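I'm curious: can you give me some protein's one-letter sequence along with its backbone structure tokens because I've never seen that pairing?
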Amino acid sequence: MKAILSLLLLLTLTNLAQAAQEIVVRDGATVPVTVSQRELTRLALADGGKLARVWGVDGQFTVQADDESGEAFIRPVEGAPVGQAFSLFVRDATGAVYTLTATVADLPAQTVLLKPQGVHKAAAPASGPATPYVDRIKVQIRAMLDGSSEAAEGCTLEAVGRAIPLWRESYVEIVRRWRCEAFIGEELSLRNVSSAELRLDEHEFEALYPDVRAVAVPVQVLAPQDATPILLLRDAKP
């Protein structure tokens, strides 16, 4: 009897370990997920929709996209330690973008099913004052995340290369700036120059300017000497 109970318990634990992670997501929000350290982790939409793109900071993980199924398979780079966290962005076919904070774990291959909250419509290109303000912010920040030189509103791009004081534990530099009709976008580079792990939060960057409208932090946990880009979007001055 003990042997049977032990076998049943083992089978139950195995099934739990391999169960899909169902994660509720919404455009613009950041949610945590767990990914396998050595094997592939499958990303898919629970409603049967298709993923259009998965991306993040180079050197954190690899991506294999399956265009036919609309799914993606990610794997941390070789040598990534258990407990390491990195951020990635997922765009679905409707144009909604979800931010995931992935934590590396010593687990077998994983499946992460994303359950979009609410109904999303594809973002239309900005076309002047008639475009809703919030929609224009979303379009603009997505274009900056994609690295677009002109972004979404025919912006002009300029190189900056100027260091700014922020925290003693970090070195921060404004890398480039988008000047648009309604917004100013900036890409910062932040490096952890301390001897301890540095944790970042989007809200910490809202105070850099009085008119910040959106913040994106691709990597929220930095080991010593690691760096991440920071993207800011603020109102253009009249």
About this structure: The chain has a mean pLDDT of 79. The first helix runs from residue 2 to 18. The chain has two helices and 16 strands.
